[in-house]
Amino acid sequence: MKQIRLLPVGILFTVLIQAQEPITEKQLAVQHTVMKVFDALSNRDSVNLKNYCTPDILLFEYGMVWNIDTLIMKGITLNQATDFKRTNTISFIHTEVNKNTAWATYNLNSEITRNGKQGFVKWMETVVLIRKKKRWKIDVLHSTLISRN
Does residue 120 lie in a domain region? Predict the structure, then answer.
């Protein structure tokens, strides 16, 4: 009897897996931009960070509004510990592209080491990107802190 009940569930699961659309090249380009921003933060590289953001980027972090200078100060300038290391894992939930505008939502998990201490931070974030001169740039980033330890 259990085998009969599991058969419809198995068929439904198979259909749902096959129904997922493959990711497009445009979506991959958007996701690549997001990953490069976090690579720049990990490498404390403000030049590359600026390359992947619009000059007037708005970041909504911890209930505050940041600009690129705030991000560089908090994400790079204040992270000068000699043992600083940040490793990011990004899991994209949804990525959408509409002409020269795109948005993506993802979970960001960062393992951060500094001053001999290791911490883990989890966020859910949504970004809005615009395409300028054939390059995607983050224009808005909204971050929700999930956990920190």
Answer: yes
